[in-house]
What we know:
By secondary structure, this protein is of the alpha/beta class.
Amino acid sequence: MKNRESFLSVIVPAYNEEDNIVDCVKRVSDALSSSQCAFEILVVNDGSTDETLRRASSLSKSCDFVRTVDLGGNFGKPNALKEGLRRAKGDIVAFFDADLQYDPKDLAKMVDLIGNGVDFVNGNRDYNGYGPYRTAFSKLYNRLVSLLFRMELKDSNCGIKVLSRRAADMHSLSDYGLPLVVPLLRVRGFKSRELDVALHERKNGESKYFESGRFLGGPKNIWDIMYHSIMLLNLLAHAPLESRRLKAGRRTVSS
């Protein structure tokens, strides 16, 4: 981030992450403090049934840079991020998963890449924290997205992203689902960078999406594959319209 006067909002969606949320906030704040970047951390509780909300609320009382948002029910990660975007005060926003499979130090590096024409920075996972089947599914999906949209893309569905405010449109960013945020922004004409990031094994809690040892990752993952396949075709069909969205916005501003 070239402009040190910018303010960063880190949105952390959390569902049943009682064993991770305190350490997550601490490690993110430590990483960003060393980068001399003004920031806030928004923990968005997505209907947790454990102690996640209580522990996050306790953090917000003791740390002035932490805010807690409670959705009052389990509405899913896209809605948690959307509400986080609505509440965020920063002109730069970041998405960071509460399970600590990503390294906050990589987040700080990504923040430094925003600016000078770069509208968003996406992580490119090394997949060390995934098993062989989940890795194969993910890489196959990324390859398919890259071919269909004819763009160089290594990782479409990494859980760590940094975006400028103009790219992070809370009303339409997840219109086609979170795995397609990166190709959607590319289609809209936003300039991007990718940074190689480490992916660690989850130490506490359970994955909310992929069940190891189950056929195709379990029923929820099978449903997600079907849903995101439909969304992929939907974005492909609407790509010409989406490509004109940024240009239309620029004409409106200039007029």
